[in-house]
Amino acid sequence: METKEILQALPNLSVSDRLKIAESALQLVLQEKHSLTKDEQKRQLRLAAITAIADYAPGSELNIFSDLEGEDFCNYPDEDFYNSGTYVQR
């Protein structure tokens, strides 16, 4: 069975069957991970890092909230939390 066929069949399965498949797939991945040599693990980490570069590029969805940096998180002009009894300093 091809990956495409498996993905198309998943919505037709019960939640229980989908969970069994996910658990089995995860167990296979973990077994494979544990059987890798240190060099193979380093190579996989290197590939994962290269793949993740696009996620951190300007304009990506992952860092879209960085546009808010420097803005006040909350602005309550009628209240002074730093000088009220509700603000606790540690």
Structural class: mainly alpha
Instruction: Note the main sheet.
Output: none
List the total number of helices: 3
Percent of sequence in beta strands: under 5%
Number of domains: 1
Q: Helical content, roughly?
A: 40-55%
User: How much is the average pLDDT?
Assistant: 82
Order of helices and strands: HHH
Radius of gyration: 24 Å
Low-confidence stretches: none
Report on the structure:
With 90 residues, the chain is mostly helical. It has one domain. Helices cover 47% and strands 0% of the residues. The longest helix has 20 residues. The mean pLDDT is 82.
In summary, what is this structure?
With 90 residues, the chain is an all-alpha fold. It contains three helices and no strands.
Question: Main traits of this protein?
Answer:
single chain, 90 residues, mainly alpha, 0% strand, extended
Topology:
Blueprint: H1 3-9, H2 15-34, H3 38-52
